[in-house]
Design goal:
mainly alpha; 17 helices
């Protein structure tokens, strides 16, 4: 038997280095505690692991409920080829969010206490329950991919019968906790910069999650087509891009009205760090994608769609980090004479988690029927109706005369 060594590439080496760094940081974190592995303190208890790994990570995984709702609830079937990649991204995203949360908790082994010692009046309790339930729902939504891979047709038919109820439950759970993440910051209006504190934060968090869910679907489809030689559904991605831009304009219109209503525009020319970060957020999430999408040659091309969507994703990340970190810097500086910047251990763990997401996505695409083939007629895309027709034809064979007509 001949064994061949896997081909070593730059990206594989880079991923290995990042994962090794995260492994070392993990040993330090759980061996010596948060104080030795982070720059967190009693004054700055929430840092990068909450701001990026949780608050941002949950939003980046929003493509699952967005695309599932579009296809299965609004019945827009032409987007079906991009549903599975979106659900895969969402499932991996939520699993990695839970991993990131385990790093941030002082006593992660007590995470199950939320199930027993319940506090229904707490926003954190609602987020915890919704994330746990929605991760379970995503596992069930993703299970047909695994069942098809191993040809477990009976179990597959049973799962497909409950697909629509699962998706409805998943959308409802996502709407609850995507908005509730914004509610976490409503209790500290005196600490946050006026650019980002607003009573509308729950609404803004939900709408921005829908936007980045569409953007992530475009980005992952483009990268998968290049890396794994998969079919790029360009007309579908153009339609997703149009929806993304439309929702984006609604979102920034609402935010602009909110800033005016709260008299927060007076800070726009103060030259502060917060103002520069707001400009960066607006440039990445609004100006650049709108310009790219409206340049005819770019707006309809693969590269143009990718860069517009990628800019939206970067702008979304900037927005969530601004809410979670930048908005509090002024308060820390004025009241305690200090600021927060993540430590090497925090950066290593976060980069490792993101790297693990890419690696797991790559292996899933390689070994599971995530994307349709070029002809779009693989067994993995059989619908409930087609499966039902197969079963019916087995019981009631088609007459020879009908076969001749076909």
């Amino acid at each position: 038997m001949n064994f061949s060594m896997p081909r070593i590439t730059f990206w594989k080496v880079t991923a290995a280095v990042f994962l090794l760094g995260a492994f070392v940081a993990t040993i330090v974190r759980f061996g010596w505690g948060l104080g030795a592995s982070t720059n967190l303190s009693d004054i700055t208890p929430w840092g990068l692991w909450i701001g990026f790994d949780v608050v941002t990570g949950v939003g980046l995984a929003a493509g699952g409920f967005t695309l599932a709702g579009i296809v299965h609830i609004f019945n827009i079937k032409r987007f079906k080829p991009v549903v599975r990649p979106a659900i895969l991204t969402a499932f991996l995203g939520y699993l990695l969010v839970i991993v990131g949360l385990m790093f941030d908790l002082g006593r992660p082994w007590t995470i199950w206490h939320a199930l027993i010692y319940q506090n229904p009046e707490s926003v954190l309790f609602e987020v915890a329950m919704c994330v746990m339930l929605y991760t379970t729902v995503l596992a069930l939504e993703f299970s047909p991919v695994v069942l098809e891979r191993f040809h477990l047709k009976k179990t597959l038919k049973w799962i497909k019968r409950i697909t629509i109820p699962l998706i409805i439950i998943g959308v409802l759970l996502s709407m609850l906790h995507q908005s509730s993440l914004g509610s976490l910051y409503l209790i500290i209006p005196q600490k946050m910069h006026p650019y980002w504190y607003s009573p509308m934060l729950p609404v803004f968090f939900f709408i921005s999650a829908v936007i980045v869910g569409l953007g992530m679907t475009i980005v992952e489809s483009y990268l998968s087509a290049r890396a794994f030689q998969k079919t790029l559904e360009l007309p579908l991605l153009r339609d997703l891009g149009r929806i993304m831009i439309g929702v984006l304009l609604v979102y920034f219109t609402m935010r602009g009205i909110d800033l005016i209503r709260r008299d927060a525009l007076g800070f726009l020319f103060d030259g502060s760090f917060e103002t520069l970060m707001l400009y960066l957020e607006i440039a990445l999430m609004l100006i650049i994608p709108v310009l790219l999408f409206n340049i005819k040659e770019w707006g309809r091309s693969r590269q143009g769609l990718f860069f517009a969507a990628f800019s939206v994703v970067l702008g979304f990340v900037t927005n969530r980090l601004n809410v979670a970190l930048t908005s509090l810097e002024g308060y820390y500086s004025e009241n305690f004479g200090m600021s927060y910047f993540p430590g090497i251990g925090e950066l290593a763990v976060t980069i490792g988690i993101v790297t693990a997401g890419f690696v797991l996505f790559a292996y899933a695409v390689k070994y599971l029927p995530i994307f349709p083939d070029e002809h779009g007629h693989e067994e993995t895309l059989i619908d409930i109706e087609e499966a039902g027709r197969e079963e019916s034809s087995a019981i009631h064979p088609t007459p020879a005369s009908e076969l001749h007509k076909q």
